[in-house]
Design a protein that fits this description.
It comes from Paramuricea clavata (Red gorgonian). By secondary structure, this protein is mostly helical. It has 17 helices and no strands.
Length: 349
């Protein structure tokens, strides 16, 4: 699929093989979550676009929209959710979602995924009110646990994660305006993440999805400013990632970066810097020199050194590197880096 010329018709033998495959029909989202560690991003993008074209030709809107979501998510991650292509793809997904509402509802898993996927994007827009909740009454019922296939159980875990992400996003939006709602959303997110973790542990055991659930719970507690709880989940995620040899990719860099940030909030600076330097070493070895991932690591390293040793040259060194990647930092973060550099220059005079 990936080696075919997108401008030409696909080889019929490939089409026949693909349209009957599990990756195309049912497990694309599960594959996507772990394909980052198997294939280059350009190969994944080509593969997903081929699947979109195939689904369009076969008039399979649910499959087509699912792969459109995967391409949009990949583009969003690549550009820190800022590119016009990402926004355009999300707008197109909403049009397709509304047009095919009845068809999508026939597939409980796909409908829930698409709803949560768009709702999270919608919630990222500061002026928007919360996107409507997903109403279970409008969906086909979930089969009893004993009647579910392994893929249905995995899908259920992925949807729980999506719903948790959405509630965490909603919590962030009301943090300054409604503390009661903030706590409600955070507790709801915690419940969904814990359900996903239990499902993954029971179904898959030591698996990358289980790693992700530990990491997501750590992120939730970090946002909640419950740093001791966050450290426990980050530690479990790091140990399992290393056990599974998933410790040389971008996802692991983000995990280490967040763990290091959490340690710095607890003023455990020696440990924090050790973890962050491990993240930096991996980020520096990844193919893309300027990326959101690498920028965030250098940003946190600079901030950690400033909090630990305000007159330390290391803070300015990392801040200068972060500034070189200013396109991946928001304006407030850029200002923070500039302040660190200015402070260091003042100490040198």
């Amino acid at each position: 699929m990936c080696s075919q010329d997108q401008a030409k018709d696909l080889n019929p033998n490939i089409i026949e093989s693909m349209k009957n495959s599990d990756i195309y029909k049912s497990s694309s989202r599960f594959f996507y979550d772990f394909g980052w560690d198997i294939l280059p991003l350009t190969v994944l993008r080509s593969f997903f676009k081929s699947c979109i074209k195939l689904a369009e030709d076969k008039e399979q809107p649910a499959i087509q929209i699912t792969f459109q979501c995967l391409v949009a998510d990949q583009e969003g991650r690549r550009t820190a959710w800022k590119s016009t292509e990402y926004i355009g793809r999300m707008d197109a997904i909403k049009v397709a979602f509304d047009k095919n509402d009845a068809v999508l509802k026939e597939d409980r898993s796909v409908y829930r995924y698409c709803h949560c996927f768009y709702a999270r994007y919608y919630s990222n827009i500061p002026t928007n009110t919360p996107y409507p909740d997903l109403l279970e009454d409008n969906l086909t019922p979930l089969p009893e646990n004993n009647d579910r296939s392994p893929m249905e159980n995995a899908d259920e875990a992925l949807i729980l994660i999506q719903r948790a992400h959405l509630n965490k996003k909603r919590a962030s939006k009301v943090f300054h305006s409604d503390k009661g709602k903030y706590e409600d959303y955070m507790n709801c997110a915690k419940s969904f993440y814990n359900q996903a973790l239990s499902t993954s542990q029971e179904l898959l055991g030591n698996h990358e999805l289980t790693c992700k659930c530990h990491k997501f719970l750590g992120d939730l507690y970090l946002l909640w400013r419950k740093n001791e709880e966050a450290i426990g989940y980050y530690s479990d995620a790091i140990k399992l990632s290393k056990k599974l040899q998933l410790d040389s990719n971008e996802a692991f860099v983000y995990l280490l970066k967040n763990d290091g940030l959490c340690l710095s909030f607890l003023r455990r600076f020696d440990e924090s810097v050790e973890i962050l330097n491990e993240a930096r070493d991996i980020a520096d070895k990844l193919a893309q020199k300027h990326s959101p991932c690498r920028a965030s690591v250098y940003y946190v390293l600079a901030g950690t050194y400033r909090a630990w040793k305000p007159d330390c040259k290391e803070a300015a060194k990392y801040a200068n590197t972060a500034i070189e990647m200013r396109e991946w930092l928001d304006s407030r973060s850029v200002k923070t880096m500039e302040d660190i550099i200015k402070t260091a220059e003042g100490h040198m005079e």
